[in-house]
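Co-fold these.
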Amino acid sequence: MKRRFLRPSLYSLVVALLLAALVHVAAVLGLPHLVRESPVRRLAVALPVNAMQILPPLTPDTQPLPFLSPDLRYAMCHYDLSNGPVVLEVSRATPSWIVALFSETGDNFYAATAAGFSKGGVRLLLVRAGERLSNSFFADTRLADRAAQVTVPAARGLIVIAAPIEGQAFDPGIEGAMQSARCQSIGRQRPVSRANPVAPPLVGQGR
Amino acid sequence: MRLIAQTALVLVLAVALGLGSAIYMIDRGSRLTTEQQGPWRSWANAGRPEADSYTRGHAIRAGWLMMTSRLARYYEARTDSSGSGLRTDCDYVVEGSDPGGTWWSLAVFDRKGHLQRNAAGRYAFNSSSVMREPSGNFQITIARDARPGNWLPTGRTGAFLLQLTVLDPVGTASDRAKAGRKIELPRVRRTTCR
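Predicted complex below.
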């Protein structure tokens, strides 16, 4: 009697499946909004703004996030473009180094190896979407000179430099080279007075 | 009364099915979102801005900062090549040739992606640090206690996973991509169990 009482009809099974599909879609689409602590935000709160931080070699005690490869050395910068563009400069990068830019939601919207840059090293100018830089801005700002321009989707995000460790003997050399990395806000730009300069081409776009 | 009971049953079933399938698809993936080669699974669109919601959800739930799969490919093995789960009370040999790309690294993590504490302070081997046979192939022993050759320690208890990271996986600067060759991933062979 009790079994019959709860026996679902075909109609209720179909309704259950349709509702399950709705719950599935809502859960998958809603997850990024429900979980406030994206990996980038977790790292960003521990990093100074617009300054490069070299992470120690990864061990169980120093691992800042799960699944980061311990055979890579990392330097990171929590960038904030609220006060103007940010310049990334890594003058002593070796060709195998990777430069990756992440949005706060964790999208890796730009990535390139240092091999794609000129011998002067990695030079990137991060600007916000819709921001137009004047010629005089480039002329007046030495740091922005010869930098490839990257448009970022939002004012805040994360720069990650990852250097493969070729062997333990090379580790001090990597750390020394990482000291050359700079991440710096270059203040509010002047209003556009002339046509935009042609920025050097991007060497790699992570999409 | 019957209507209320059946409605409750339908709702419970819908939530359980909907949430269960969502968690499964986010944690483990499917053929639509992941690529499987032997025991190795990789999220095809990891890190990309145009990645699907399952891939994004996977990165967020795992707390994983994934670089774009165009530049770095992550392969994860939770089982050996015969399909048995990786356990710290067994020894394994990872053997094969260079999987491709410009650089690779093999690391041991626990199931949540944390490095496992060990007395040797060794957590990974890479294409530069691994000792090779004359043929260029390599063998890495994954075991709790010290072994000769390339020995990668596991933790003391529980299950673990292997992560193979390959940089420049599609060979943007090499001939491999032009030849369209598939990346050859190493085998994971169980040797002994305690």
